[in-house]
Amino acid sequence: MTEHAWLIVVLPLVSWLLISAFGRRLKNEGDWLGVVTIGVTLVLSLVVLWEVAGGAATRVSVPWLVMGDWQLDMGYLIDPLAAVMLVVVTAISFLVHVYSMGYMHGDARYRRYFATLSFFTFSMLGLVVADNLILLFFFFELVGLASYLLIGHWYENLGPRLASLKAFIVTRIGDLAFLVGLAVLVLATGTTGIPELRELVEHHQVPATVLTLAAILVFGGAVGKSAQFPLHVWLPDAMEGPTPVSALIHAATMVAAGVYLVARSFFLFEPSATALSVVAVIGGITALLGATIGVLQTDMKRVMAYSTVSQLGYMMMALGVGSLVAGMFHLWTHAFFKALLFLAAGSVMHAMHTMEMHSMGGLYRKMPVTAWATIIGGLALAGVWPLAGFYSKEEILNAAFYSGVSGAGFAFWAGVISALLTAFYMTRAVILVFFGRPRDRHRYEHAHESPPVMTVPLAILMVLAVTAGWVNAPISHHWFGKLLGEAEVHLAPIVTVLAVGATLLGVAAGYAIYALRLVDRRAVINALRPVYTLVRNKYYFDELYNATVLRGSLRLAEWAAWFDQRVIDWLVNAVGYVAVKLSEAAGKFDLSVVDGLVNGAAAVTVGAGRRLRTIQTGFVQTYILTFFAALVVGLVVFQLWRL
Amino acid sequence: MIPLSWVLVSAALLFGLGLYGALARTNAVRILIAIELMLNAVNLNLVGFSRYLSPHDVTGQVFALFVITVAAAEAAVGLAIILMIVRQRDVSDVDRINLLKW
Amino acid sequence: MTGLQIAFLALSAVMLFAAWKVVTSDIIVHAALWMVLSFVAVAGIFLTLHAEFLFAVQLLVYAGAITALVIFAIMLSDIRELRGEGEPAGAGLGRRVRRLVSRRLGLAPAAVAVGFAAVMYSVYRATPWPGLPPGDPAPSTLAIGRELFGTYVVPFELASIVLLVAMVGAIVLTLREGGREKEEKRP
Which of A390, A270, B23 minimizes the C-alpha distance to C109? Predict the structure, then answer.
């Protein structure tokens, strides 16, 4: 199967085309087509993973473009990394497809939604298997395009429209860095194939400075896609899209693309301590930033969104401290519990038609499955033993603890504090939404559990959120780590104690404040007013970008306008004045001499035209006759001239 | 053995006849037939060259095949157009079809 | 003069005579039938040039399919060739040119056609041609198959698309109004 892995990429593409072309005539607008296709690719991906775990690997590459003596290939590379990612993407995508059949039921653009979902999956799978960085870049862009289309699915409303634009433009800034990084790599090495590059780097045939530069630029692409500080601003706004799309974006496709990019080109980072430090520190900052903002959001989906930002920070941090396995492991576990959380949030949204947590409460009695999904997802996210998040988080903290990269210390403490905050805000969200008294009677009365097509994916994800971490636990002899090539695992007891302590403290604090109301929230907020304002407003990042980037370009435009009006206009006016004077003189000459010539020429033309237009008979035969006559005469002349 | 020039000359004569037909006759169907004759002349040339100039590969014959394919398509569409014109304007003489005129 | 040469000359003569009749015969159905003869003669010439596969294709496509098409078109449209139909349309210089063309054995077309053939003949005369390569060539059908599905597989596929489009186009063009109505009535 591994050598036929291209099927996994092509099937969603076919599904996209079929749904787009024939969806109208298919039953249920073709949604089953997408579900079946993705289901098949999921099975194929599992087979590939099975084979790869048994030692299979494949690389197929065919020439694509030849420019002079430089050749660009396209092909696919299946190694353990890609195989793991294939399973993550197809699994989440499959469940999201199924869930969407319920969630999007009756949507005006149901068919377009499913077609684009297939397209999104296709782009992401292409990105996963791409064997060279340029091909990867193309799919990277396609992922961006697909997420733009899906975030803006309800484009009649201003919010989704602006959010999709924001996501597209902000990630494009990162993509530009990636592109420049690619150019640097091509100039320095002449190849973009991932195995070839890896070989060159491993044999020290790339200068260290070039490598560092390229690595940091490539990381720029990941910063944009994976919503790392300072380009994280688009991700929370992307909540405007349909919730299953958010689940897909946050769990498996869009934001995972950045992490996967760094993992895929990890050999560029490994030899460069500087690049690793940059990644670790940015990851740490992002983890802290996301976690703190998440604490004060009141919109359920936005809490999830900032927790994604924070968890992505974790993954980057893991990569930055030099542990590919820890980063990918967290990507793996996070995909399952974050998809679970989002789909559960979607279920709440479906019932309540709002995401504002302060108008929820007590929903446990109305929607037990959704509540359990959120609780299990939340516990997994917070890192409670033995759920998935526990293992990956511990692995990351251990990696940071033992790492020699400068900045790893910061990353470690950022990780611990984020763990505490994560546990706190998840507890808060669960209590506000599902327990206590209902705050909005009217909405509460109308709430109901979602249909099975939505709860069954939730149930599956619940199981996965519990078990996904076990693949890299003592119980499975660290199968996952060995698959991705990690020799041994160091586990420091102090790290486990800290991590578990932070989590428990977070849960306890959340419980104490929101369930038991031991502490008066108002008092705390008043005591910490400046911090509260800062965090509540998301550190004013949007305002900062407005003030600098947007205002800056406006200011530049104003200045350009002033320059244009004062300097250039003056020059133009001066030139104009001179020209007017000259033309007055010329006009006199023109009227008498030139006009005479022109009129004469025109008269000749009209006369000739009147006679010649009769040749234009409209009979094609006449034209062909003239054509062949000219051809014969031309050939004769040519022959004579040659003699 | 047949000299190549025989093939070429007879193809040139066939082409000339076709050309004459296409130019001199006014019936649209007949013009189409004359064009088919010209295409046949071209095929003759191609096959001749294939036989004499590159005996070890059959590129010329493959080209002739493609010409036949296109000729078939052209005949189908051309005749359909003629049918259409006859039906709508009740003429099949290109003399009467002069919408391209000034 | 070998048998092959005699065969070639005979076929060539038949082909040219048939073509002459195609162009000059007065009745359009006769022209179509002469066309068949001409095509068959061309097929025979292909055989003398060792192009067996093209021989078959020529018979099938030209002598079969295209002929059927032409005859169908003649029958369906009830085309009659009208002779000596008054003055050609047009005015002035163009009318004069037109008159040159449309006379039944118009001078200008004849001059152009003969001129073209003559020019080609002089070109062929002036070019040194290689002799026939020694030995009989292998049957070409296998080689054509190899080329078609190897080197020329993309043009081959494109040609099939061209045929498909032509087919659809022909159907759409000749669709009668009645047929369209019937289609619309379906739910």
Answer: B23
Instruction: Considering only the beta carbons, identify the residue of A617, A628, A639 that sits closest to C90.
Output: A617
b/e string for A443-460 if b means 16 or more Cβ within 10 A?
A: bbeebebbeeebbbbbeb
Task: Look at A625 and C109 and tell me if their CB atoms are within 8 Å.
Answer: yes
Nearest CA in chain B to C7: B2
Sites in chain B below the pLDDT cut of 50: 102
Which chain B residues are Cβ-neighbours of C121 within 8 angstroms? Answer: 9, 12
Alpha carbons A246 and A240: distance in angstroms, whole number = 9
* A639 vs B20, more confident: B20
Q: Rounded to whole angstroms, what are the CA distances from A300 to A354, A591, C28?
A: 9, 79, 82
What distance in Å separates residue A617's CA from the closest CA in chain B?
A: 5
* pLDDT range class, residue A195, cuts 50, 70, 90: confident
- Residue type at A434? F
Are the C-beta atoms of residues C40 and C70 closer than 8 Å to each other?
Answer: no
Size of interface A-C (CB pairs under 8 A): 52
Q: Helices A408-434 & A493-510, crossing angle to 10 degrees?
A: 30
Dihedral sign (CA C99, C104, C106, C110): positive
User: Could you tell me which chain A residue has the CA closest to the CA of B25?
Assistant: A621
CB A429 within 8 A of CB A357: yes
The closest CB to that of C101, out of A615, A616, A622, belongs to A622
- State ipTM: 0.87
B24 at the C interface (CB within 8 A)?
yes
Give the C-alpha distances (Å, rounded to integers) separating A422 from A77, A309, B75, C28: 36, 11, 74, 90
Report the first-to-last Cα separation within chain C, whole angstroms: 71
Q: In a 3-state reduction of DSSP, which class is residue A63?
A: strand
**Chains with 3 or more CB pairs closer than 8 angstroms to B?**
A, C
Contacts 24+ apart (CB under 8 A), C150-159: C152/B62, C152/B66, C155/B66, C159/B66, C159/B69, C159/B70
Give which of C22, C43, C61, C46 is closest to C163, Cα–Cα.
C61
Sorted by sequence, the CB contacts under 8 Å of residue A246 that are 6+ apart come out as A238, A239, A301, A304, A305, A342, A346
Structure tokens at A450: 């979602």
Tell the residue number behind the tokens 């599904």, with chain if given: A15
B1, B6, B15, B25: which to substitute to probe chain C, counting the most C Cβ within 10 Å? B25
The candidate with the shortest Cα–Cα distance to B70, out of C50, C65, C159, is C159
The CATH classification of domain C1-83, taken from the options 1.10.3720.10, 1.20.120.1200, 3.20.10.10, 3.90.230.10: 1.20.120.1200
- Spans of chain C below 50 pLDDT: 82-89, 104-105, 180-187
Q: CB contact, 8 Å: A632 with chain B?
A: no
Q: Supply A188's token pair.
A: 């320095």
* pLDDT above 90 as % of chain A: 3
pLDDT (tens digit per residue) in A173-194: 888 899 999 888 888 887 888 8
Partner C, chain B 31-90, Cβ-Cβ below 8 Å? 32-34, 36-37, 40, 43-44, 47-48, 50-53, 55, 57-59, 61-62, 64-66, 68-77, 79-84, 86-87
Q: Across the interface, which of C89, C105, C159 has its CB nearest the CB of B69?
A: C159
Question: Structure pTM?
Answer: 0.62
- Residue A207 CB coordination number (10 Å): 10
- Nearest-by-Cβ selection for C19 from B7, B17, B61: B17
What does the block give as tokens for A261?
A: 């990019």
- Going from N- to C-terminal start, the domains of chain C cover 1-83, 98-127, 139-175
Burial class (CB in 10 A: 0-12, 13-18, 19+), A144: buried
Distance from CA of B28 to the nearest CA of A (A): 11
